[in-house]
Write a structure and sequence with these properties.
By secondary structure, this protein is of the alpha+beta class. The chain folds into 3 domains: 113 residues, Butyryl-Coa Dehydrogenase, subunit A, domain 1 (Orthogonal Bundle); 105 residues, Beta Barrel (Butyryl-CoA Dehydrogenase, subunit A, domain 2); 149 residues, Up-down Bundle (Butyryl-CoA Dehydrogenase, subunit A, domain 3), CATH 1.20.140. It is built from 11 helices and 10 strands. The strands form 3 sheets. Strands 1-4-5-8 form a 4-stranded mixed sheet, covered by helices on one side.
Length: 380
């Protein structure tokens, strides 16, 4: 199998790298993080101009027909610059859900807005107490003559504060953690009965607690099959995990580069500390962990679009489990070799470390995915 990037993929990567290097430096990111939106609308428009927002969607849906590997390239590059724009939430997760199970009218309207950079969407699925159980949906949707009434609470919805539309999962039948009975709804975050409590996460992303009290939506707000949306939600989350793995690789590569440069310039006892064998061994361990992570992230990307749920689950959970552990090795090593300044807000290393920590916790941590991976092996 040829793992070299195609000319088109190299062009996408180079274009994004040049833009981020020129207009998305560390100090610029710090300013963006403190802005009311928490991300750069100018950068989002540039992503649209570069075709990144249309990249993973089929040509029939107004996209460029890219693959999960193309998405991996984008996420790795965004990760290396700690970009704050909701690319994962809007394009990778919410967009793929709409493309998979939306009606033609929903695809035209919503995907057209996403690819054009005029619409931001977020999946509101996780709930308090779910502990990564994707079937745990306590939010309810009660049928009415002309639609549904939603009640419930969605937790830590990343991208929700800036979203124009929320994709909300709710239970239309069954109870508890039944796999059947989950339906997906399109909800306006400004609709009556919707309350968003927004906050910044430790890695400077924006998230919100979303509470729904007697929120009325029409029948046309249903996305996909009634009672049968969970498989599509799981597939979208698996794509999101593959994207997070790629982002983590980008961060680890950048952390290794920053740490290596520091070892070459910081002197102790009259010599660069990179001359000390113990630190050389530590740096080698970090480099190996990063390259192994890249291999697993590539495998996860290759399997992310698979219709075989067991195959997809095994690949993305294996990658997430290992990369979660590798991120700790690289992140802690980088911080410790930088010394006390490695945890200061003025140094990008600390921000890389925070993002890696949050990536590990998003969509299931290393322990959760290690158990999920082992379950797939036992099932065989």
């Amino acid at each position: 199998m040829d793992f070299n990037l195609s000319e088109e993929q190299v062009a996408i990567q180079d274009s994004l790298r040049r833009y981020l290097a020129k207009d998305y430096g560390f100090e610029q990111r710090r300013t963006i993080a403190k802005s009311p939106d928490g991300f750069s609308k100018a950068a989002w428009s540039t992503y649209a101009e570069l075709g990144l927002l249309a990249l993973p969607f089929s040509e029939a849906n107004g996209g460029l027909g890219g693959s999960a590997v193309d998405t991996m390239i984008v996420m790795e590059t965004l990760g290396s610059h700690l970009a704050l724009e909701p690319y994962l939430a809007t394009v990778v997760v919410a967009g793929s859900l709409i493309a998979d199970i939306g009606t033609d009218a929903q695809r035209d309207r919503l995907l057209g807005g996403i690819t054009g950079g005029t619409l931001i969407a977020a999946l509101a699925h996780q709930e308090p107490g779910a502990r990564y159980n994707r079937a745990h949906v306590g939010t309810t949707a009660r049928r009415e003559a002309d639609g549904f009434v939603l009640n419930g609470h969605k937790a830590v919805v990343v991208g929700a504060p800036g979203a124009d539309q929320l994709l909300v999962s709710a239970r239309t039948s069954g109870a508890g953690a039944d796999a059947q009975g989950v339906t997906l709804f399109l909800v306006d975050p400004k609709a009556a009965g919707v309350t968003l409590t927004a906050y910044a996460t430790q890695d400077a992303q924006r998230a919100a607690e979303v509470k729904l009290v007697d929120v009325k939506v029409g029948a046309d707000a249903v996305i996909g099959p009634v009672d049968g949306a969970l498989p599509a939600i799981e597939r979208a989350i698996d794509r999101g995990i593959a994207g997070l793995c790629a982002e983590a690789v980008g961060i680890m590569v950048a952390l290794n580069a920053a740490t290596l440069e520091y070892l070459k310039t910081r002197k102790q006892f009259g010599v660069p500390i990179g001359k000390f064998q113990a630190l050389q061994h530590r740096m080698a361990d970090m480099a190996i962990a990063t390259e192994q992570s890249r291999s697993l992230a590539t495998l996860a990307a290759l399997k992310a679009d698979s219709d075989d749920a067991a195959e997809r689950s095994r690949a993305v959970s294996g990658a997430k489990a290992y990369i979660g552990q590798a991120a700790r090795t690289v992140g802690q090593g980088a911080v410790q070799m930088h010394g006390g300044m490695g945890v200061t807000d003025e140094l990008i290393v600390a921000h890389f470390f925070k993002r890696l920590t949050l990536i590990n916790a998003t969509f299931g941590d290393a322990d959760h995915h290690l158990a999920r991976f082992s379950d797939t092996l036992l099932a065989e």
